[in-house]
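Input chain follows. Return structure tokens only.
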Amino acid sequence: MRLSLLQTHGLKILLTIIKSGKETLTASEISKIEGLKTGYVGKILFMLRKAGIVATIRGKTGGYYLAEDKKNITLYDILNALSPNKIEVKLCPNIKKGEDCTHSIDCAIRPIFYEAYRYFKHLASNITLEEMAFREKEILQMVQEMKNYYCEERI
């Protein structure tokens, strides 16, 4: 799976908000820290706000902050908020709108993509924003354990 730039920058923006130590950060402050244009940061923050991941406070001391506890926001939530149509795996790439797949009865591709999507969704749904921000070693161990579970060699 490949993340879009929007998703990658969105993750970095959220991690910047968490690690800043401030209650709120403005789009301008985030853009300076991340080296991104303020308008682009604003676009990402708008999408995250619409998804309920961040909220805003207006005024002199205002800015963006996490709308929920970082323990309750998952990687899957974030990626889905930033590109909902790109996360869903098309289970059959041969199906075009309004047409049947010629391999709909006996297809070797569909189960592979379906299992890959299930693995990704399980993994991304079990990694929180807090873990990404502060627990890299634990995440690496968890990913390795999941990899071992899903990728055991078949005899």
